[in-house]
Amino acid sequence: MSEELFAQMRQAVIDGDPAAAAALAEQALASGVPPLDAIDNGFVPGLTYVGEQFGAGELFLPDMMLAARAMQKAVAVLEPEMQRQATERHVLGRVVLGTVKGDIHEIGKNLVGMMLATSGFEVHDLGVDVAPERFVEAAREHSADVVGVSALLTTTMAGQRTVIEQLEAAGLRPKCRVIVGGAPASSTWATEIGADGYSEDAIGAVALVRQLVGA
Amino acid sequence: MNTASAAAAGVRPRLEVLSPAAIRRIHEATLEVIEKVGVRFPSEQALDIWAAHGATVDRATSIVKVPAHVIEAALRTAPPAYTLAARNPAQDLPLDGHHVGVGTDGCGIEVLDPWTLEVRRSTLADVADIARVGDALDQVDFHWVAVSAQDTDPATRTHEELLAVWRNSTKHVQTETVVTAPDARTAIEMAAVVAGGRGALRQRPVLSMMQCTISPLAHDGGPIEASLVAAEAGVPVGFMTMASCAFSGPATIAGSLIVGNAEVISAMALMQLAFPGSPVYYAAAQTAMDLRTGAYTGGGPEDFLFGAATNELADFYNVPLSMGAFATGDKRSGWQAGLENGLSAFMASVSGADMLLGVGLLHGSRIWSFEQMILDAEIASIVEAMLRGIPFDDEALALEAIAEVGPGGEYLTLPHTRKAMKGLWKATYLDRRTYGQWHDDPDKYHRDALERARSLIKNHRPEPLDPAVDRELVGLIERHRQAAMAS
Description:
The complex is a heterodimer. Chain A has helices spanning 2-15, 18-30, 35-55, 61-84, 107-118, 132-141, 158-169, 187-192, 202-213; strands at 94-99, 122-125, 146-150, 177-181, 197-198. By secondary structure, chain A is α/β, with parallel strands linked by helices. Chain B has two domains: 1-392 and 427-487, Alpha-Beta Barrel (TIM Barrel); 394-423, no CATH class. An eight-stranded parallel sheet of chain B has the order 6-17-16-14-12-11-10-9. Chain B has a four-stranded mixed sheet with strand order 8-7-19-18. Chain B is globular. The model of chain B has no long low-confidence stretch (mean pLDDT 95). Classes of the chains: A alpha/beta, B alpha/beta.
């Protein structure tokens, strides 16, 4: 019975169908399937399959994003029950993300956030036009392992340095790592402002964060 | 490049990818999107203007929904043609549908150093060197600030960049990094000093501005307010959409054209509502996301089709177009750069772009290469020759020469040849040597291009600014710095 449900969950993620994924999560709760089992045996295998096919060049970034979104919907349905049972998904690390003050570009940052979330990280996305103090506050509040700072403009990228300086001033460094991204950033820029890492794209960002937290 | 006097009795090559019905459909769909879905303008000033002209304004989301007739009436006051003035009037660039002006690209963040050949962060000295080389190259008609002067104070960076270009070139300057109203006010004061006063600037805008939209369907507040400052001063301002298939626009070309068009025409309409008759232009650098990496590609068949289609939209709205071309994703000056820049420049030019952006950057407009700048200029010269079309006067028909040589024989030694061959294009950096010569020195043309740039950096002496003007510009920058520190 569970096996068939798990197969449907896997397929819902592969199809990138958030409504189906959420309905299957409800069904799991109604029939008493433990939420963690549903995630680990149902939804995650779908995501793993999509990831493998993506790696092989058979599926594309939008396929990955849709699968990730379906997975997120399902987890959101299961979360209250997980909390009630006092079970927790094992997270690889806690990440705070945002776009620097004065900059309202967000697609790239959202992509990184979703990829991290579906790779097993707890992601707190602060949105766009985020003041440096907000990054510090959120890093402290969530005990962030990594803070990701995005900027798209040559006129706003200096804000990445400010975030690092303020995290230093707040005494959160070097324990809390900082990564930077966005079109004007580069590895030389990351080095110059004392960031712990830079990635040119979202897939690289996941690998970078994994490496930084030793996952 | 001037393509007006071309093809005396021949036809200037012209390519169309949208039928009149298709253009009309895109226009109507765009109006519907602006009216029903809306466009975000996060600026109180912009929202006030929209509200005063009958748009539905949501102050919480900054989204405006504008009736179609308001947009259409506003666009009708945009001037169809005007001139981008240069410090040297002989270098003025008329945006009249008969000229394609090639600019430098922008705004890169790294430079392939012409002396060490290492990639490093860009500086103010690079901005000056690039302007100097651009001043010397016939194929470069105007400047963008090609790279960011990252060694300068961010508060006055855009103004120092502007001054560096004016000090090193007499050609027109278009900025893409003046993104707040205070920055725009200082930039325009500087331009007025160069032009010889506010009235003179309005007559001869030696500066124009370009602002990027935020796809999908949004603008940034600062850049919109900077644009309003420009429009009030009569400084031409354009809006560039980079809505990319499957990323910041729908996965289809038609859908992304509609999204991009809504962004651009809504911003142009806002300028016209605020300052009717102010010079505006359409700008676009649309592409398709790379489906595997999510990267901005800056090349590929979708790019080239966007280039042609956007020209037809700008013609429909009867405003000049600045088209992103030469935006190769290549990391070096290799085959991909030649292919992408050649096709994008050709497609945009042959469909009637007025401004082409721009030469010199690699890796999707991130890394400046002087070698690529020189090679892109050669691409521009090929495109220019094609746009001149096929001349058809008596000398071109060459009937006397044909009779003189007759069947058999050759044309090498004919006086007609010696005279008429001046019209044939001559390669500077294409490798047309023998195989043996190539084998002995395979990199000759890459080296030649780099050496040409090096020589211009060292030896080209542009017409300097009048010392009094220079001092005044430095003073304005200093005043801006102090105002920025005080606030």
